[in-house]
Amino acid sequence: MKKHAAGRLCPGAAAARPRGAAAWQVVSGAAAAALLVAGCGGKGNNPTSPTPVTATLTPPTLQSPAANEQLDSLRPTLTVKNATADHTGTRTYEFQISDSGAFTSALTSNVTGFAATVGKNDVAEGTNGTTSWTPDTDLQPTTLFYWRVRATQGTSTGPWSEVGKFKSRLVGFLRAGELYDPLIHGETVGQLVGGGTFIPGKGIQFDSKTSYLKYLLPQTITSGEFSMDVEGLRANGPGDKAKVFGMQEGQGDFITNKYRVDIQYRGVSGVPPNAITFRALYGSATDKSVRYEPDTATRFASVFPLDPSTVYNWKATWGSEFRVTVRSGGLAGSVFYDVGMPTPRGTYAPNPHYAYLGAPVGRSGSEAATIPGTIYRNVWLGNRPRPDSLGSALQ
Protein backbone atom coordinates (compact mmCIF):
# COMPACT_ATOMS: atom_id res chain seq x y z
CA MET A 1 0.00 0.00 0.00
CA LYS A 2 1.59 3.39 -0.98
CA LYS A 3 1.45 6.41 1.26
CA HIS A 4 2.79 9.89 0.39
CA ALA A 5 2.65 11.86 3.61
CA ALA A 6 3.68 11.43 7.20
CA GLY A 7 2.17 8.10 8.31
CA ARG A 8 1.69 6.93 4.68
CA LEU A 9 4.01 4.51 2.87
CA CYS A 10 5.73 4.85 -0.48
CA PRO A 11 8.14 2.62 -2.39
CA GLY A 12 11.38 2.26 -0.47
CA ALA A 13 9.71 3.24 2.80
CA ALA A 14 10.60 -0.06 4.31
CA ALA A 15 14.26 0.59 3.65
CA ALA A 16 13.98 3.89 5.45
CA ARG A 17 12.17 2.38 8.45
CA PRO A 18 14.30 2.28 11.62
CA ARG A 19 15.76 -1.18 12.11
CA GLY A 20 13.85 -3.19 14.74
CA ALA A 21 10.63 -1.21 14.53
CA ALA A 22 7.55 -3.44 14.57
CA ALA A 23 5.55 -1.14 12.39
CA TRP A 24 6.11 2.21 10.52
CA GLN A 25 6.29 4.97 13.05
CA VAL A 26 4.94 8.36 12.12
CA VAL A 27 7.52 11.12 12.49
CA SER A 28 7.25 14.82 11.85
CA GLY A 29 9.32 17.95 11.28
CA ALA A 30 12.84 17.83 9.80
CA ALA A 31 13.22 14.13 10.53
CA ALA A 32 10.09 13.35 8.54
CA ALA A 33 11.29 15.36 5.59
CA ALA A 34 14.64 13.61 5.61
CA LEU A 35 13.05 10.19 5.71
CA LEU A 36 10.64 11.06 2.91
CA VAL A 37 13.47 12.32 0.71
CA ALA A 38 15.56 9.27 1.43
CA GLY A 39 12.72 6.83 1.00
CA CYS A 40 11.04 8.40 -2.02
CA GLY A 41 14.08 9.17 -4.21
CA GLY A 42 14.28 12.97 -3.66
CA LYS A 43 17.16 15.27 -4.58
CA GLY A 44 18.95 14.48 -1.38
CA ASN A 45 20.45 11.45 -3.18
CA ASN A 46 23.16 13.80 -4.72
CA PRO A 47 25.31 15.46 -2.02
CA THR A 48 26.00 19.19 -2.56
CA SER A 49 29.67 20.01 -3.51
CA PRO A 50 31.54 22.41 -1.21
CA THR A 51 31.49 26.05 -2.36
CA PRO A 52 34.98 26.98 -3.80
CA VAL A 53 36.98 29.18 -1.48
CA THR A 54 38.19 32.48 -3.00
CA ALA A 55 41.77 33.13 -1.91
CA THR A 56 43.26 36.53 -1.19
CA LEU A 57 46.79 36.74 -2.64
CA THR A 58 49.71 39.02 -1.89
CA PRO A 59 51.90 40.32 -4.76
CA PRO A 60 55.19 38.49 -5.42
CA THR A 61 58.37 40.30 -4.34
CA LEU A 62 60.97 41.02 -7.04
CA GLN A 63 64.37 39.53 -6.25
CA SER A 64 66.54 39.57 -9.37
CA PRO A 65 67.70 41.24 -11.50
CA ALA A 66 68.34 44.16 -9.18
CA ALA A 67 66.83 47.56 -9.93
CA ASN A 68 68.35 49.13 -13.08
CA GLU A 69 70.96 46.38 -13.28
CA GLN A 70 73.03 46.25 -16.46
CA LEU A 71 72.92 42.63 -17.63
CA ASP A 72 75.21 40.72 -19.97
CA SER A 73 72.37 38.65 -21.39
CA LEU A 74 69.52 38.93 -23.86
CA ARG A 75 67.63 36.12 -22.08
CA PRO A 76 67.83 37.03 -18.39
CA THR A 77 66.34 34.83 -15.65
CA LEU A 78 63.76 36.73 -13.59
CA THR A 79 63.17 35.60 -9.99
CA VAL A 80 60.54 36.57 -7.42
CA LYS A 81 59.79 35.60 -3.84
CA ASN A 82 56.56 33.63 -3.93
CA ALA A 83 53.19 35.20 -3.19
CA THR A 84 51.20 34.09 -0.16
CA ALA A 85 47.47 33.36 0.26
CA ASP A 86 44.98 33.07 3.11
CA HIS A 87 43.95 29.60 1.91
CA THR A 88 46.00 26.66 0.71
CA GLY A 89 46.11 25.80 -2.97
CA THR A 90 48.29 25.47 -6.06
CA ARG A 91 49.63 28.73 -7.48
CA THR A 92 50.98 29.72 -10.90
CA TYR A 93 52.59 32.99 -12.01
CA GLU A 94 52.36 35.42 -14.91
CA PHE A 95 55.56 37.28 -15.94
CA GLN A 96 55.60 40.35 -18.19
CA ILE A 97 58.57 42.20 -19.79
CA SER A 98 58.19 45.35 -21.89
CA ASP A 99 60.20 48.27 -23.23
CA SER A 100 57.32 50.44 -21.97
CA GLY A 101 56.47 51.11 -18.35
CA ALA A 102 52.80 50.90 -19.37
CA PHE A 103 53.36 47.30 -20.56
CA THR A 104 51.77 48.03 -23.90
CA SER A 105 53.10 46.69 -27.18
CA ALA A 106 56.53 47.85 -28.29
CA LEU A 107 56.57 51.59 -28.97
CA THR A 108 57.48 50.89 -32.58
CA SER A 109 58.05 47.64 -34.41
CA ASN A 110 61.12 46.33 -32.67
CA VAL A 111 64.29 45.10 -34.35
CA THR A 112 63.70 41.93 -36.35
CA GLY A 113 64.80 38.85 -34.42
CA PHE A 114 64.52 40.52 -31.01
CA ALA A 115 61.56 40.94 -28.65
CA ALA A 116 60.57 44.25 -27.08
CA THR A 117 57.46 42.90 -25.32
CA VAL A 118 57.18 39.32 -24.07
CA GLY A 119 55.44 37.40 -21.30
CA LYS A 120 54.49 33.99 -19.94
CA ASN A 121 51.40 32.65 -18.13
CA ASP A 122 51.04 29.55 -15.93
CA VAL A 123 54.61 29.41 -14.68
CA ALA A 124 54.57 26.79 -11.91
CA GLU A 125 55.44 28.02 -8.43
CA GLY A 126 58.94 27.12 -7.27
CA THR A 127 59.33 24.87 -4.25
CA ASN A 128 62.12 26.77 -2.51
CA GLY A 129 60.12 29.92 -1.77
CA THR A 130 60.98 31.58 -5.10
CA THR A 131 59.78 31.29 -8.70
CA SER A 132 61.89 31.97 -11.80
CA TRP A 133 61.31 32.33 -15.53
CA THR A 134 63.65 32.82 -18.50
CA PRO A 135 62.33 34.14 -21.87
CA ASP A 136 62.70 31.72 -24.76
CA THR A 137 63.56 34.52 -27.23
CA ASP A 138 66.26 37.20 -27.29
CA LEU A 139 65.29 40.60 -25.95
CA GLN A 140 66.18 43.74 -27.89
CA PRO A 141 69.77 44.67 -26.98
CA THR A 142 70.91 47.84 -25.22
CA THR A 143 67.37 48.51 -24.02
CA LEU A 144 65.84 49.51 -20.70
CA PHE A 145 63.16 46.95 -19.84
CA TYR A 146 60.35 46.95 -17.27
CA TRP A 147 59.04 43.77 -15.63
CA ARG A 148 56.34 42.63 -13.21
CA VAL A 149 54.76 39.41 -11.92
CA ARG A 150 51.46 38.28 -10.37
CA ALA A 151 50.12 35.02 -8.95
CA THR A 152 46.95 33.02 -9.61
CA GLN A 153 45.35 30.43 -7.29
CA GLY A 154 42.19 28.75 -8.45
CA THR A 155 39.82 31.47 -9.62
CA SER A 156 41.73 34.19 -7.76
CA THR A 157 44.35 36.42 -9.43
CA GLY A 158 46.47 38.53 -7.14
CA PRO A 159 47.80 42.06 -7.61
CA TRP A 160 50.85 42.84 -9.74
CA SER A 161 54.19 43.14 -8.05
CA GLU A 162 56.00 46.44 -8.07
CA VAL A 163 57.57 47.28 -11.44
CA GLY A 164 61.26 46.45 -11.82
CA LYS A 165 63.78 47.67 -14.38
CA PHE A 166 66.85 46.13 -15.97
CA LYS A 167 69.06 46.86 -18.98
CA SER A 168 69.66 44.22 -21.62
CA ARG A 169 73.10 43.33 -22.92
CA LEU A 170 75.11 46.11 -24.56
CA VAL A 171 75.77 44.71 -28.01
CA GLY A 172 75.60 45.92 -31.60
CA PHE A 173 74.73 44.29 -34.90
CA LEU A 174 75.44 44.87 -38.57
CA ARG A 175 73.21 43.12 -41.08
CA ALA A 176 71.25 43.81 -44.25
CA GLY A 177 69.11 46.90 -43.81
CA GLU A 178 70.21 47.89 -40.31
CA LEU A 179 73.23 48.73 -38.20
CA TYR A 180 73.41 49.44 -34.49
CA ASP A 181 76.59 50.22 -32.53
CA PRO A 182 76.42 51.26 -28.82
CA LEU A 183 80.19 51.95 -28.65
CA ILE A 184 80.21 52.47 -24.86
CA HIS A 185 81.44 48.98 -23.95
CA GLY A 186 84.80 48.85 -25.74
CA GLU A 187 83.52 47.13 -28.89
CA THR A 188 82.39 48.14 -32.36
CA VAL A 189 80.77 46.41 -35.31
CA GLY A 190 82.75 48.77 -37.56
CA GLN A 191 86.47 49.28 -38.25
CA LEU A 192 88.50 51.92 -36.43
CA VAL A 193 91.01 53.77 -38.62
CA GLY A 194 93.73 56.18 -37.47
CA GLY A 195 93.43 55.69 -33.73
CA GLY A 196 90.75 56.22 -31.15
CA THR A 197 90.03 55.61 -27.47
CA PHE A 198 87.06 53.76 -25.99
CA ILE A 199 85.84 55.64 -22.93
CA PRO A 200 83.74 53.30 -20.72
CA GLY A 201 80.16 54.44 -20.48
CA LYS A 202 80.66 57.33 -22.94
CA GLY A 203 81.73 56.02 -26.35
CA ILE A 204 84.66 56.15 -28.75
CA GLN A 205 86.78 59.31 -28.93
CA PHE A 206 88.73 60.18 -32.06
CA ASP A 207 92.31 61.19 -31.36
CA SER A 208 93.03 63.24 -34.47
CA LYS A 209 91.72 64.64 -37.75
CA THR A 210 92.73 61.41 -39.46
CA SER A 211 90.80 59.13 -37.09
CA TYR A 212 87.42 57.74 -38.11
CA LEU A 213 85.18 54.68 -37.85
CA LYS A 214 83.91 53.03 -41.00
CA TYR A 215 81.12 50.55 -41.67
CA LEU A 216 80.71 48.46 -44.82
CA LEU A 217 76.98 47.88 -45.13
CA PRO A 218 75.90 44.42 -46.33
CA GLN A 219 73.23 46.00 -48.52
CA THR A 220 72.76 49.42 -50.14
CA ILE A 221 70.26 51.59 -48.27
CA THR A 222 68.62 53.90 -50.81
CA SER A 223 66.43 55.60 -48.20
CA GLY A 224 66.84 55.55 -44.47
CA GLU A 225 68.21 57.12 -41.31
CA PHE A 226 71.74 57.58 -39.97
CA SER A 227 71.80 58.92 -36.39
CA MET A 228 74.06 59.03 -33.34
CA ASP A 229 74.90 60.87 -30.14
CA VAL A 230 78.01 63.09 -30.26
CA GLU A 231 79.84 64.79 -27.42
CA GLY A 232 82.96 66.97 -27.50
CA LEU A 233 81.93 69.32 -30.32
CA ARG A 234 83.04 72.84 -29.53
CA ALA A 235 82.85 76.27 -31.07
CA ASN A 236 85.90 77.55 -32.97
CA GLY A 237 87.38 74.10 -33.37
CA PRO A 238 89.95 73.16 -36.00
CA GLY A 239 89.23 72.76 -39.69
CA ASP A 240 87.07 74.44 -42.27
CA LYS A 241 84.56 71.93 -43.68
CA ALA A 242 85.06 69.54 -40.78
CA LYS A 243 82.89 66.42 -40.89
CA VAL A 244 80.68 64.95 -38.15
CA PHE A 245 79.66 61.89 -40.21
CA GLY A 246 79.22 60.79 -43.80
CA MET A 247 78.64 58.10 -46.44
CA GLN A 248 79.99 57.19 -49.86
CA GLU A 249 80.35 54.51 -52.53
CA GLY A 250 83.43 52.28 -52.27
CA GLN A 251 86.78 53.48 -50.98
CA GLY A 252 87.83 56.03 -53.57
CA ASP A 253 88.50 59.67 -52.78
CA PHE A 254 85.78 60.86 -50.42
CA ILE A 255 85.59 64.43 -51.72
CA THR A 256 85.09 63.45 -55.39
CA ASN A 257 82.78 60.48 -54.72
CA LYS A 258 79.52 60.59 -56.68
CA TYR A 259 77.54 59.35 -53.68
CA ARG A 260 79.23 61.49 -51.05
CA VAL A 261 77.17 62.56 -48.07
CA ASP A 262 78.90 64.71 -45.47
CA ILE A 263 77.41 66.39 -42.44
CA GLN A 264 79.56 69.29 -41.29
CA TYR A 265 80.23 71.42 -38.24
CA ARG A 266 82.60 74.00 -39.66
CA GLY A 267 85.67 75.01 -37.68
CA VAL A 268 87.32 78.33 -37.04
CA SER A 269 88.38 78.70 -40.69
CA GLY A 270 84.96 77.71 -42.05
CA VAL A 271 82.66 80.01 -43.96
CA PRO A 272 81.13 80.89 -41.64
CA PRO A 273 82.78 79.40 -38.53
CA ASN A 274 80.60 77.20 -36.31
CA ALA A 275 77.99 76.59 -39.02
CA ILE A 276 76.08 73.32 -39.34
CA THR A 277 75.58 72.34 -42.98
CA PHE A 278 75.64 69.32 -45.32
CA ARG A 279 76.06 68.10 -48.89
CA ALA A 280 74.42 65.04 -50.48
CA LEU A 281 75.27 63.79 -53.98
CA TYR A 282 72.75 61.47 -55.66
CA GLY A 283 74.90 59.89 -58.35
CA SER A 284 77.33 62.50 -59.70
CA ALA A 285 80.19 64.57 -58.34
CA THR A 286 79.88 67.12 -61.18
CA ASP A 287 76.17 67.31 -62.06
CA LYS A 288 74.79 70.02 -59.78
CA SER A 289 71.20 68.94 -60.49
CA VAL A 290 71.75 65.93 -58.19
CA ARG A 291 73.70 67.89 -55.56
CA TYR A 292 71.65 68.84 -52.52
CA GLU A 293 72.90 71.33 -49.95
CA PRO A 294 71.62 74.39 -48.06
CA ASP A 295 72.05 77.72 -49.82
CA THR A 296 74.44 80.38 -48.52
CA ALA A 297 71.77 82.28 -46.61
CA THR A 298 70.67 79.11 -44.78
CA ARG A 299 74.26 78.25 -43.94
CA PHE A 300 74.92 81.69 -42.48
CA ALA A 301 71.70 81.37 -40.45
CA SER A 302 72.88 78.01 -39.06
CA VAL A 303 75.73 79.18 -36.80
CA PHE A 304 75.68 77.55 -33.37
CA PRO A 305 78.40 77.72 -30.69
CA LEU A 306 78.27 74.10 -29.56
CA ASP A 307 79.30 73.11 -26.03
CA PRO A 308 81.79 70.21 -25.68
CA SER A 309 80.11 69.03 -22.46
CA THR A 310 76.69 68.67 -24.13
CA VAL A 311 75.51 65.54 -25.92
CA TYR A 312 73.99 66.31 -29.31
CA ASN A 313 71.89 63.86 -31.29
CA TRP A 314 72.58 64.13 -35.02
CA LYS A 315 70.28 62.57 -37.60
CA ALA A 316 70.28 62.48 -41.40
CA THR A 317 67.42 61.00 -43.41
CA TRP A 318 67.42 60.49 -47.16
CA GLY A 319 65.29 59.19 -50.02
CA SER A 320 62.83 61.53 -51.73
CA GLU A 321 64.01 64.20 -49.29
CA PHE A 322 67.34 64.85 -47.59
CA ARG A 323 67.12 66.29 -44.09
CA VAL A 324 69.43 66.87 -41.12
CA THR A 325 68.22 67.49 -37.57
CA VAL A 326 70.28 68.14 -34.45
CA ARG A 327 68.98 67.94 -30.87
CA SER A 328 70.61 69.35 -27.75
CA GLY A 329 70.70 66.82 -24.92
CA GLY A 330 70.46 63.58 -26.88
CA LEU A 331 67.48 61.76 -28.37
CA ALA A 332 64.98 63.32 -25.98
CA GLY A 333 66.41 66.83 -26.32
CA SER A 334 65.07 69.84 -28.14
CA VAL A 335 65.65 70.33 -31.87
CA PHE A 336 67.63 73.44 -32.72
CA TYR A 337 68.66 72.60 -36.29
CA ASP A 338 66.23 71.14 -38.84
CA VAL A 339 67.00 71.72 -42.52
CA GLY A 340 65.87 69.61 -45.45
CA MET A 341 64.95 69.72 -49.11
CA PRO A 342 63.27 67.52 -51.74
CA THR A 343 65.57 65.37 -53.87
CA PRO A 344 63.57 64.89 -57.09
CA ARG A 345 66.52 63.98 -59.31
CA GLY A 346 68.78 60.99 -58.92
CA THR A 347 68.69 58.10 -56.47
CA TYR A 348 71.01 57.55 -53.57
CA ALA A 349 72.40 54.14 -54.55
CA PRO A 350 76.07 53.59 -53.58
CA ASN A 351 77.40 50.10 -54.16
CA PRO A 352 79.26 49.12 -52.07
CA HIS A 353 77.80 51.39 -49.40
CA TYR A 354 80.19 52.74 -46.74
CA ALA A 355 79.28 54.90 -43.75
CA TYR A 356 81.55 56.90 -41.43
CA LEU A 357 81.74 58.49 -38.02
CA GLY A 358 84.05 61.37 -38.76
CA ALA A 359 85.32 61.05 -42.32
CA PRO A 360 88.35 59.84 -44.24
CA VAL A 361 90.88 62.36 -45.52
CA GLY A 362 90.16 63.18 -49.15
CA ARG A 363 91.49 65.58 -51.74
CA SER A 364 90.64 68.57 -49.53
CA GLY A 365 93.02 67.41 -46.77
CA SER A 366 92.63 66.88 -43.04
CA GLU A 367 90.95 70.27 -42.51
CA ALA A 368 87.86 68.75 -44.15
CA ALA A 369 87.93 65.47 -42.24
CA THR A 370 87.25 64.36 -38.64
CA ILE A 371 86.88 66.76 -35.71
CA PRO A 372 89.40 65.56 -33.08
CA GLY A 373 88.20 65.01 -29.53
CA THR A 374 84.63 64.10 -30.54
CA ILE A 375 82.99 61.14 -28.74
CA TYR A 376 80.39 58.98 -30.53
CA ARG A 377 77.87 56.44 -29.23
CA ASN A 378 74.40 54.97 -29.85
CA VAL A 379 74.73 54.75 -33.64
CA TRP A 380 71.80 53.66 -35.82
CA LEU A 381 71.79 53.29 -39.61
CA GLY A 382 68.78 51.59 -41.14
CA ASN A 383 66.22 51.53 -43.92
CA ARG A 384 63.60 52.65 -41.39
CA PRO A 385 63.54 55.04 -38.43
CA ARG A 386 65.42 54.11 -35.28
CA PRO A 387 63.20 51.93 -33.01
CA ASP A 388 62.07 54.17 -30.16
CA SER A 389 63.48 52.11 -27.28
CA LEU A 390 66.70 50.88 -28.92
CA GLY A 391 69.59 52.41 -26.99
CA SER A 392 67.40 53.41 -24.03
CA ALA A 393 69.84 51.56 -21.76
CA LEU A 394 72.35 54.34 -22.52
CA GLN A 395 70.11 57.22 -21.47
Task: Report the biggest beta sheet as strand number plus sense, adding barrel if it closes.
Answer: 9 strands, antiparallel
- Overall spatial form: elongated
Quickly give the structural class: mainly beta
Amino-to-carboxy terminus distance: 93 Å
pLDDT averaged residue by residue:
89
Residue windows where pLDDT falls under 50 for at least 5 positions? 1-44
Number of DSSP strand runs: 25
Observed structural traits:
395 residues; mainly beta; nine-stranded antiparallel β-sheet; seven-stranded antiparallel β-sheet; 25 strands; 5% helix; disordered N terminus
Protein model, in words:
It is a single chain. Strands 10, 11, 13, 14, 16, 21, 22, 23 and 25 form a nine-stranded antiparallel β-sheet that branches. The chain is elongated. Helix content is 5%, strand content 34%. The longest helix has 12 residues, at 29-40. By secondary structure, it is mainly beta. The protein has helices at 13-16, 29-40, 296-300, and strands at residues 61-64, 69-70, 78-81, 91-98, 117-124, 130-133, 144-153, 156-157, 164-167, 173-175, 178-181, 191-193, 196-199, 203-206, 212-216, 224-231, 243-249, 261-265, 276-281, 291-292, 312-318, 321-328, 334-342, 353-357, 375-382. The relative contact order is 0.15. It contains three helices and 25 strands.
